[in-house]
Amino acid sequence: MVTLGDTEQGRGRPEDQRKPGRRVAGSNPLAARYSTACTRAGIAAIVTAAVSFAMAGRNPQSRACLLRTNSFLHGAERQFSHIVQAWQGGIPKQPARGRQMSILIERLNARERRGSKPRCHLLTHGSSDVVAARLTSLAAPFASVAPTDRWMPDGFENTAECQLDKAPQLLSDALCVRLAKWWLPTNAQGARTPNFDIASTCKIGGARGLLLIEAKAHAMELVNEIGGRQLKEDASAQRKASHITIGAAIDSAGIGLGAATRLSWKISRDSHYQMSNRFAWAWKLTELGMPVVLIYLGFIRAYDMSKPGEVPFADAGAWESATTSHSGPLFPTEVWGRRWLVNGLPLIPLIRSLDLPCSAGSDTRL
Fold first, then answer.
1. What pLDDT is stored for residue 98 in this prediction?
2. Confidence at residue 212, expressed as pLDDT on a 0 to 100 scale
3. Picking from 4-8, 236-240, 323-327, 347-351, which range would have the lowest pLDDT averaged per residue?
4. CB contact set of 185 (below 8 Å; sequence gap of 6+)
5. pTM for this structure?
6. Exposure string over 197-227, b if 16+ CB within 10 A, otherwise e
7. What range does the domain containing 33 cover?
8. Domain presence at residue 235
9. Contact 239, 284 (CB under 8 A)
10. pLDDT the model gives residue 304
11. What integer pLDDT is reported at residue 103 of this predicted model?
12. Same domain (yes/no): 275, 339
């Protein structure tokens, strides 16, 4: 699992190598946390509150005292969390960080302010050095992203997701045209094509390539995509025509992937459509001379996803299990995590996870 704070500081250290002291052992974690904070910051009022909290916790009859102390501690957390964080690993010190996060997220449409969508924008938000390091950490050791590379979306400034046939900042005009002709009927070359959550130019084995990321924040996002591409009886003539060309494009990709990997592929327009089209586009790019790293990225512990049926991924293992289960009807599990030569170029499908808090009160570095 990748942790955003590490890549931003340029250390690349895994979580278990960070400075100790984020939590103090004891019978009352909240009291212990603030005892530590007070020892380091020298705030006598918090020491007093922590002691009161611990005493109230030992006396079941002192519920009123416990509630008052707990309320005081939560208020203290809001006032002094930046001091504690400064001692515990270099997290930004400004208490206004939460307000800054809220302002950024409000640039998105109301229905896009939770789950994987704002996290993708947060992942690509910041200086080019920082964003490049984040993306590299996800794709390593197979690909690297430099500050001079280009990506979509561009944080909260340019929030458009990437349709590869309409992304001249990532691909040449000629490649964009060829992708559209492959996917769409001739009379609908400007129609909508699959949106990738994040796409970036990169280096793969020293050659110019493309990093594609499909992101999820809860299990239902995969469950809802088991079905095929919809075609209603009253669909327009253009949609009916594109249904035919898309089916043919995915079928050709499945044949090509099967030949390259010597495995059974069953990607289809009519089942698991989104994952099928992601692999089809990755295959087509290799046919057009572009190596690809395709990442399925799970944002774990996305607890803002709390509506009925939304089950956040608890950890990296839960995300990997859900992804391999979803891809099982399409291709063998061994496809993931390997470097395949497809059309003579690398195609590398990866499963990655990232714990990236995304709310007004989160500790995420911006």
1. 55
2. 98
3. 4-8
4. 238, 241, 242, 244, 245
5. 0.72
6. bbbbbbbbeeeebbbbbbbbbbbebbeebee
7. 19-87
8. yes
9. no
10. 77
11. 73
12. yes
Within-domain flag for 217 = yes
Domain count within the chain: 2
Note whether 271 and 227 are within 8 A (CB).
yes
**CA–CA gap between residue 175 and residue 151 (Å, rounded):** 17
Assess contact for 335 and 349: CB atoms under 8 A. yes
Q: What is the mean pLDDT of residues 338-359?
A: 93
Domain-located, residue 4: no
Residues 80 and 41 in one domain: yes
Q: Please indicate, yes or no, whether residues 133 and 72 belong to a single structural domain of this protein.
A: no
In this prediction, residue 359 carries a pLDDT of: 60
Q: Which of 275, 255, 290, 260 is nearest to 328 (CA)?
A: 275
Indicate if the pLDDT at residue 210 is higher than 60. Answer: yes
Per-residue CA distances from 324 to 71, 98, 290, 330 (Å): 44, 35, 26, 10
